[in-house]
Amino acid sequence: MKKENISPSCFLFSVLFLFMCFSLESHVCFAVDTISSDQSLSGNQTVVSSGGVFELGFFRPGNSSNYYIGMWYRKVSQLSIVWVANREKPVHDINSSVLKISDGNLVLSNGSRVPIWSTYVSSGSVISNSAVAVLLDDGNLVLRDGLNSSTILWQSFDHPADTWLPGSKLRFDKRTNQSQSIISWKSLDDPAPGLFSFEIDPFQTNQIVTVWNRSQTYWFSGTWDQQTMSFSLVPEMRMVALSSLAFNFSYVSEENESYFIYYYYNSSTIAKYFMDSSGQMKEMTWLENIKQWTVFYSQPRQQCEVYGFCGAFGSCNENQPFCNCLNGFQPTSPQNWDQEVYSGGCARKTKLGCDNHSVGTGKGDQFLESRYTNLPTNPQNTMAVTSMECKATCIQNCSCTAYAFENNQCSIWIGDLFNLKQLEQDDITGKLLYIKLAASEIDSESSPTNKRRVIVIPIAVSTGLLLLGLMMFIIMKRRRTIISPKSAKGSLVAFEYRDLEKATKNFSEKLGKGGFGFVFKGTLPDGSIIAVKKLESINQGEKQFRTEVSIIGKINHVNLVRLRGFCSEGSRKLLVYDYVSKGSLDRHLFHGLASEPLDWKTRYQISLGVARGLAYLHENCVDSIIHCDIKPENILLDVDNFPKLADFGLAKLLGREFSRVLTTMRGTVGYLAPEWISGVAITPKADVYSYGMMLLELVSGMRNFEPANDKEGTFFPVWAARQVSEGVNVLNLLDDRLHGNVDLEEVCRICKVACWCIQENEIQRPSMGQVVQILEGFFDVSIPPMPRFLQEIGNDRSTYISSPT
Ligand SMILES: *[C@@H]1O[C@H](CO)[C@@H](O)[C@H](O)[C@H]1NC(C)=O
Ligand SMILES: *[C@@H]1O[C@H](CO)[C@@H](O)[C@H](O)[C@H]1NC(C)=O
Ligand SMILES: *[C@@H]1O[C@H](CO)[C@@H](O)[C@H](O)[C@H]1NC(C)=O
Ligand SMILES: *[C@@H]1O[C@H](CO)[C@@H](O)[C@H](O)[C@H]1NC(C)=O
Ligand SMILES: *[C@@H]1O[C@H](CO)[C@@H](O)[C@H](O)[C@H]1NC(C)=O
Ligand SMILES: *[C@@H]1O[C@H](CO)[C@@H](O)[C@H](O)[C@H]1NC(C)=O
Ligand SMILES: *[C@@H]1O[C@H](CO)[C@@H](O)[C@H](O)[C@H]1NC(C)=O
Ligand SMILES: *[C@@H]1O[C@H](CO)[C@@H](O)[C@H](O)[C@H]1NC(C)=O
Ligand SMILES: *[C@@H]1O[C@H](CO)[C@@H](O)[C@H](O)[C@H]1NC(C)=O
Ligand SMILES: *[C@@H]1O[C@H](CO)[C@@H](O)[C@H](O)[C@H]1NC(C)=O
Ligand SMILES: *[C@@H]1O[C@H](CO)[C@@H](O)[C@H](O)[C@H]1NC(C)=O
Ligand SMILES: *[C@@H]1O[C@H](CO)[C@@H](O)[C@H](O)[C@H]1NC(C)=O
């Protein structure tokens, strides 16, 4: 690391090194990892750690015109800043700005020699003349005594920016009761400390928390368990072991400090924890083969769970744009909102009368009634017992901004309103909130635009069918398409019943029967082949039916069967899909049905395709769509055995009826997650469970719940999970028709994934996005534990399979 004298070979090395750097990018390197007292860094010069891992120099973030001293991964082709020195005070001219050792400190000064940033180590000590700054390969910039390298005066690991690097401590100082915070950037263009941070819980429970504005905690990791190597509320950490992401994460408690620290076992792994400016703490890995950062997980998982994400008087939803201002309010900084930085929140368009002393207390202020999924945080309860009294309480207090009266309980809010979540379209179940606005705002809110909404609703209710019928008529006369408002691509055809009758030759060619009706093959006049599903037992209103159908129609993914159109004439409800030539997977997979068994490569491609389709439904759709009925019957294969998922969106389309049919349908039950039976809320993780069950069938080529597939008298999934969790040869699980012609690594991977997917506790199951990454081979998974639930029902399978309630 230190070069005492220049030998010829060393000189050659330096020249070579310089040459390499020139050919790399715009940054010219210093060719050394050290800034000593006679050197300085400016312009496009940089310092590189001895192993070439990290580089330090000036950089310009995003579209900003400001420059900062930062540190980045040298080997990562996309500039990825892990540390910034002068976060709050940029410089503007890098050619005249200088970073150098001055009076024992590392100091950045601008063109006028004004110090902008410094390590602020008390100066004047004996070693101040010999101090040197060294950039180490773990990303630590160390200021130390040049004569005695074990005397460390300052290190960047003690002053992190938004990134917690492997090998650095996330500390709690027991002497000052202070936690060290990892603080987000304000925005992609501005590395100044933002509102979000994470730190060790200052109450000394061994967990990590995320914090808004240094004061409000909004997510807890749960306590650390060294045994299972995971936080109690982040059990997916357990799954990520071995290969690239395997780490040694530990909690250490000493006399003066406690800290978390982690290392990746594979030192070539480029990965980090950081606090995103969205308020989510993320673990990201650089995948060199695709030259991209991949988020392995983010916490909290939902954007709207981030405290204050939309700022004061903003409301949040899970779709872009994530935030809107409440009625009567506007963004405090429209530029920031355009850049998706919402935390500045919203301000009143018109001052309250109460704040205008010439008007007098409360005069001229009124309340706007609004519905949200929740009420704002930090309510204050009052003694008021009627709605009128509640309102009066709020009117009388000038700082009161809103009230709610629910279950005879009056709550008022003082000051800014935070964390409101918007209702989904058409949802009328939300909570009522009365927001105080200047009278002129109420007038404008309830004039033109708002009045229309008020009027349309009663009309829609009373004469909705008539209007819709009329609209249908007009639309069908015109072009027979309903044009979805946003995407022209997703336009659906509204078919007439008799056209479909003709196309399907009076519903003569049956393709199959699901729980929700028969499917028929048909041919349209233009020659294209379609599959027509006649829905039974639909109890959805006309309007909602159309809303849901148009949502399904907009979904477009190669692993999903495309919806082309629909027919809705009274009780006749039909869906028209692209025809997928080879039919459903069960016909090609299971013993006795398939003439020719699917080879291993095809099975693996099917599992990956289905995972991609599901991940798309869960993670990329406007509203996350839970399929609810994953099973081989709903996986269709095209001519190249490429899988396409059918029947997605039906769960919402059919409403309550769906789950009733689902849980009483014999064939489906073996795929249903335990939460279907226990009656708790269904999340996308229910699909993950069904998917896991299906993976086991892909491996074995037999139905899980067929007695013929029992092994040693045990329910197959139980037996399979035991083999996997005990690390027995997974080839035992394999379909014998494959004669062992498989990729052993892929079989292992699928079996482990399947077993993680069927864990009883849904939080332990991976997300579909993670499943895709694992099956693609980017991440490895550890040996899953035995799913407890299965073990229990394994002995009493008959009750589970045939009589759910
Ligand atoms: C970097 O600095 C060197 C020396 O001042 C100069 O020759 C070179 O053009 C600079 N490169 C860029 C991209 O500014
Ligand atoms: C920079 O500006 C371009 C064009 O205005 C925009 O597309 C891009 O998203 C901006 N990048 C950042 C990081 O703000
Ligand atoms: C710094 O100097 C280089 C050439 O020496 C020049 O190309 C570059 O534009 C200058 N940068 C700034 C920010 O003035
Ligand atoms: C250096 O910083 C000082 C104080 O912030 C400022 O007044 C001065 O204009 C800056 N000089 C340059 C060249 O940017
Ligand atoms: C270097 O400093 C350490 C403590 O900071 C001390 O223990 C050691 O004796 C010093 N070594 C020399 C050669 O001065
Ligand atoms: C730190 O907190 C502990 C317990 O909460 C308390 O006993 C101690 O006095 C505090 N120390 C300081 C310096 O505030
Ligand atoms: C954050 O807290 C500080 C005081 O601790 C306060 O002045 C500031 O307004 C807060 N920021 C927001 C966005 O509420
Ligand atoms: C993990 O890290 C801790 C603390 O640094 C250390 O004590 C332990 O030996 C490490 N374990 C392994 C398996 O490397
Ligand atoms: C803790 O701090 C005290 C006082 O600052 C010091 O004497 C002691 O050596 C420290 N303990 C450790 C383990 O560093
Ligand atoms: C470490 O990671 C690199 C790159 O991800 C990989 O090529 C290498 O095989 C890994 N080494 C081990 C021992 O797993
Ligand atoms: C205060 O009230 C008076 C009288 O209604 C009005 O003319 C004035 O514009 C108001 N001022 C503000 C700042 O709203
Ligand atoms: C308004 O209510 C808050 C909370 O109840 C109270 O602290 C404050 O003093 C009240 N202000 C007035 C003017 O009554």
Quick recap:
Keywords: ATP-binding, Cell membrane, Disulfide bond, Glycoprotein, Kinase, Lectin, Membrane, Nucleotide-binding, Phosphoprotein, Receptor, Serine/threonine-protein kinase, Signal, Transferase, Transmembrane, Transmembrane helix. This protein is an alpha+beta fold and 805 residues long.
Please give the structural blueprint.
Elements: H1 8-24, E1 28-29, E2 34-35, E3 40-41, E4 45-48, E5 54-59, E6 68-73, E7 81-84, E8 98-102, E9 105-109, E10 115-118, E11 131-135, E12 141-145, E13 152-155, E14 163-164, E15 170-173, E16 178-179, E17 182-187, E18 190-200, E19 208-212, E20 216-220, E21 224-225, E22 230-231, E23 247-253, E24 257-264, E25 271-275, E26 281-287, E27 292-299, E28 314-316, E29 323-325, E30 329-331, H2 334-338, E31 346-348, E32 365-372, E33 380-381, H3 387-396, E34 400-406, E35 409-414, E36 420-421, E37 431-438, H4 439-446, H5 448-478, E38 481-482, E39 492-494, H6 497-503, E40 510-514, E41 517-523, E42 529-534, H7 542-554, E43 563-569, E44 572-578, H8 586-589, H9 600-620, E45 635-637, E46 643-645, H10 650-654, H11 656-664, H12 666-669, H13 674-678, H14 684-700, H15 716-725, H16 744-757, H17 768-775, H18 788-794, H19 797-802
Helix pairs in contact: 9-14, 9-17, 14-16, 15-16
